[in-house]
Specification:
mainly alpha, Four Helix Bundle (Hemerythrin (Met), subunit A)
Length: 137
């Protein structure tokens, strides 16, 4: 359980660091390639850490090990650890992370900015709370 708590702390630190630097204004985000690069990297780190957290939960509960990263959220949904809506949001975030990390085509700056400022933090915080409730920690 300590590894799970440590992973949650890691995610919360990444969120705090991201919040301290991202611009609310899309025009500023679009103009500043350094801010875009930093925000994209934090997006990757946060989602990778949430996936790591999901794997730790699966291991802790001795559940079936998923075939790939996407399936971790299906397993947590099936176990009622997270809602269907949240599982779909996290799978979408993982898809965006893959686009950013592996440069599959052109990155849609507006979509990434929106995801970071309007969805990512809220969804990840909900995911953490759901997992904490599921594990009763």
């Amino acid at each position: 359980m300590k590894r799970i708590k440590d992973k949650i702390s890691e995610i919360e630190n990444y969120i705090s660091e991201l919040e301290s630097l991202f611009p609310i204004d899309y025009k500023l985000y679009k103009r500043d390639f350094k801010i875009r690069a930093i925000c994209e990297r934090y997006f990757e780190r946060i989602i990778e850490s949430v996936i790591d957290l999901a794997f730790l939960v699966i291991k802790e509960k001795d559940l079936k090990i998923p075939e790939d990263d996407k399936n971790v959220f299906d397993i947590l949904e099936n176990e009622k650890a997270i809602s269907n809506t949240l599982a779909n949001k996290m799978k979408d975030a993982n898809g965006m992370r893959n686009i950013i990390a592996h440069e599959y085509g052109k990155i849609d700056d507006e979509l990434v900015h929106y995801a970071i400022t309007e969805e990512l933090l809220k969804d990840v915080e909900e995911c953490i709370k759901s997992i904490e409730n599921y594990l009763k920690i």
